[in-house]
Amino acid sequence: MNERILLIGYNDGVLTALDAASPAGSVVVLEEPDLWEGKNLAAKAARHPCLGEVRFGQYQQDEQFMSVLSDLRDVRCVAPGLEYAVPAAAQCAEAFGLAGAGREAASLLRDKLALREATSAAGMAAPEFREITSAADIDEFARGRACVVKPANRQASLGVVLLDPGGDTERAWRECSQADEGNQLARRPMCWRYLVEERLHGPEYSTECLVSRGEVVFLNVTAKHTAPGPWPVELGHVVPAADDDLATWRAVCAELVSAVGFDTGILHAEWVRTTDGPVLIECAGRPPGDKIIDLIDFAYGVNLTECWLALLAGEEVSLPTAAQRGAAIRFITAAPGVIASIEGVDAAQNRPGVTKVDIARSTGDSIGALRSSWDRIGSVIAVGDTPQEAEQFASAASELISVRTE
């Protein structure tokens, strides 16, 4: 029986979920050498009994990794742990004769321009958009309109700039095209594309779907809160969203799956709900970040990671149809500078409903302006009988944490 899980791209959350659900030593991780070293992943990996082997290869915009995996046997499933690993996981799954997103779908999901073209061609609602290579392209497109400037094939809200009518297009282009991911990216030349699109207005949501052979078999809708101003960094999520129009969400998710030709796996899509209905912002063919999987597990009483991998392995899966309670996360931010003190963590941890307080930075660390997910410094997760109660608990606890910078 095939027991090994191949995870392309180290993901601590996925490994934590598998520690509780998979045999010791059953996971093989493939990671870029630069990321392994730059993110000090060896120390984190040592905490996971499920992790049995680590291999090193180039998968970010590269196919060298296939030679590193050619001798791997007894693989149960192949899964992408990170955004940049989605095409590699699809290619590897196909080579091993296993279920996956499909190489064409994975390619579409890694390029927002290609995704816009595919969903528009399928008749899905979309804002006006175009590829850009300069600030002049933004000027030509905007014509006094509010718009969004963003990389087509990067991650974590990196380089996304909201531009108001008459805004500084030179600044927007510079911040979009020169965004730096630091140790999240291998140290070799990469190819990037950029786009500008009409800015949508309305509440923002995400959907998390498990898909089996082109059919949505699990759907969650998440409400999200983003930072005001030009950089829409996510500050909180609530599961499930207080939106009872599930029929509409099921319909648009089914349209999305069909439009990209997605076969099997997990889809994390982001939407703006306009007066005419949900309009797609973007979609990823990997687990959501921001600990949304943890929120789903708490709310639905499920290990969604294991369910996702079981589908990739071609196994039967029993999935919940409704949430049992609510779960929410609030992110901790700070003013730019050097962290002088962090206070209130214990008080927040002891608040009603709080399940976890996670602070990822320490005194002495330098903090930049809040321009991407990497600039947040921690989070608070809480549960409640309802989504509203969970959100209240998470918000109240997060307000107890004070981060002073100098």
Automatic annotation (TrEMBL):
Transmembrane segments: none
Domain ATP-grasp: 116-313
Molecular function GO labels: ATP binding; ligase activity; metal ion binding
Keyword annotations: ATP-binding, Ligase, Nucleotide-binding
Protein name: ATP-grasp domain-containing protein
Annotated organism of origin: Saccharopolyspora rectivirgula
